[in-house]
Amino acid sequence: MTMLHLSDPEQLLATVIALTVAFVLGTLIGLERQYRQRTAGLRTNVLVAVGAAAFADIGLHLQGGEGAVRIVSYIVSGIGFLGAGAIMKEGAHVRGLNTAATLWCSAAVGACSGAGFPVEAVLLTVFVLAGNTLLRPLVNHINRKPMDERVTEASYRVHVVCDPSRVADVRELLFDELEAAHYPIREIEVLAEGEDEVELAAVLVPTTAEPGELDVVVAALEHRPEVINAAWTVSTTS
């Protein structure tokens, strides 16, 4: 019959300290996330930090430093599944990456606490909070600046509107014009299809491009009788 293992007072005190540190620091990270109404808020970050601390603490008590290292390695890979649940793809946009990264850091904070490194856990918390708060104005400033297509790696599309009976000809025309301009095509999408008009979009391989060159391509397309309208657009890559 297996006997219950009773921790000695020193071990129990170390566990209490580890879990308390993880709880407090997880609360600090979670408060910032909750304030910004993120998917993973206060309770999620606290539970991730405390859970990681508990696992690291168990490994430390059972097998010493080697056990803690083994448990921490499992935490690093395991938290990825939880973070993946916070990531959502909406069309060309991906949301939740920052939330997933914060959860990953909360687990690291808990692992540091459980492994007996409270000072390192505090330092990591400071850096996580700084990344989520102090860098926000810089990110907003960069996002408000107009995108320079000449230096930005982005996703480019050349749009063409044509008569439904000329779709095959326009597809071939798109290939010819873009190949002559040395812009490889990843695929050609049908964005809209009606009785009178069809809109095609040639998706270029993500790269930097010269707006003037794309303007020339669009101008050449617009002069073709089978093309009703032509334009090009750009968006940032994920």
Mind explaining what this structure looks like?
58% of the residues lie in helices and 17% in strands. By secondary structure, it is of the alpha+beta class. It has 2 domains: 9-144, no CATH class; 154-236, 2-Layer Sandwich (Alpha-Beta Plaits). Strand 4 (185-193) and strand 5 (198-204) form a beta hairpin.
Which features characterize this protein?
Alpha-Beta Plaits; 58% helix; 17% strand; 2 domains; alpha+beta; 238 residues; single chain; two-stranded antiparallel ribbon
Structural class of the secondary structure composition? alpha+beta
Helices and strands, in order, run as: HHEEHHHEHEEHE
> How are the strands of the largest sheet arranged?
4-5-3-6
- Compute the number of strand runs: 6
Calculate the mean pLDDT score and round it. 82
Q: Counting H and I runs of at least 4 residues, what is the number of helices?
A: 7
**What overall form do the CA principal axes indicate?**
elongated
> How many strands, what sense, and barrel or not for the largest sheet?
4 strands, antiparallel
Number of separate domains:
2
Radius of gyration: 27 Å
Helix content: 55-70%
pLDDT < 50 runs, ≥5 residues: none
Strand content: 15-25%
Terminal CA distance: 56 Å
List strands and helices in order, with pairings:
Blueprint: H1 9-35, H2 42-84, E1 88-90, E2 93-95, H3 97-114, H4 118-133, H5 136-144, E3 154-162, H6 167-180, E4 185-193, E5 198-204, H7 211-222, E6 227-236
Antiparallel strand pairs: 1-2, 3-5, 3-6, 4-5
Helix pairs in contact: 1-2, 1-3, 1-4, 2-3, 3-4
